[in-house]
Design brief:
The longest helix has 43 residues. By secondary structure, the protein is mostly helical. It contains ten helices and no strands.
Length: 287
């Protein structure tokens, strides 16, 4: 048999490189369209949630259950305080010990307070809190709502004319925003406190010097930027968790995929949001 008969058929005018690139472009295109579809869904969910919050604040007949919000704050925020404090405290210890040797080369070990104060308040405090909260509470919210979808509890709510966004999503999003805002402050405080403890006891930096450098370096804009980031990170965690939970299909496997997607997507969204905020604050001269 001739060699030409054994070669795969090729479309006229399409080179071999095109045959290799076409499947890659197809996969990339599908991923991009899926990502855009999810971003659109998140914006729609945010708009719907904000609408219900506005109605609850302005109309007497529409009420957002305070008990539901408080219970979610306890579940999402209060129960996360220990693990967030532990992780941020250890990060503060690590930063102090890592900064000491390079600063010693310039005889500026007391500047540990300056660096840690700015880095923790602007970035590490809310970032650590958000990442810990994603694994601690975000996956749990997605799994809970996903299980309700699989067991047809969402359909039961709709059959009773109860909007699932109002009764399920809004309390969890509000709780995530409020909890993450507070956890960002707690994480920053614990990191600075532990850094000060190791600096005073092990690195032999006088307490008065550490506190003086910290107060002189840190500005209100540093605290404000971290405070705003914490609230936005919490909103992203709550929205992504609820969206993935409501989009569950396929039984128990779908619930597992929803929890995994929630953690991955929340971390990616938090990092990109942090980049956007940092660029905006830099442009405004707040950094």
């Amino acid at each position: 048999m001739a060699d030409n008969d054994t070669q795969p058929a090729r479309k006229p005018g399409l080179p071999l490189g095109g045959l290799l690139i076409a499947p890659i472009l197809d996969v990339v295109g599908r991923k991009v369209m899926t990502a855009l579809d999810q971003i659109g869904g998140l914006f729609y969910l945010l708009a719907d949630s904000m609408t219900w919050i506005w109605r609850g604040a302005t109309r007497r007949k529409v009420r957002i259950g305070k008990a539901a919000v408080v219970s979610q704050i306890v579940r999402v925020g209060v129960r996360s305080i220990f693990i967030v404090s532990l992780v941020s405290g250890v990060v503060g210890l690590i930063l102090a010990l890592q900064l000491a040797p390079p600063l010693d080369e310039f005889g500026q070990r007391p500047l540990i307070a300056n660096i840690i104060g700015v880095a923790v308040l602007r970035e590490l405090g809310p970032l650590i809190g958000a990442i810990v909260l994603t694994g601690f509470a975000g996956a749990s919210i997605a799994a809970e709502i996903g299980t309700m979808v699989v067991s047809e509890e969402i359909e039961a709510l709709e059959a009773h004319a109860l909007n699932p966004i109002r009764f399920l999503v809004v309390p969890r999003v509000l709780a995530s925003i409020l909890s993450m805002t507070a956890l960002g402050v707690i994480a920053s405080g614990m990191a600075i406190l532990c850094a000060m403890l190791i600096s005073v006891t092990v690195l032999e930096i006088p307490y008065a010097t550490f506190t003086s450098n910290l107060v002189d370096q840190v500005k209100f804009s540093d605290f404000f930027s971290g405070f705003i980031k914490g609230g936005v990170f919490g909103m992203l965690i709550g929205l992504i968790a609820c969206y993935n939970g409501l989009a569950v299909s396929g039984g128990a496997a779908g619930v597992g995929n929803a929890t995994t997607n929630t953690v991955v997507q929340s971390v990616v969204a938090i990092i990109f949001a942090d980049l956007v905020f940092t660029a905006a604050f830099f442009a405004l001269g707040l950094v």
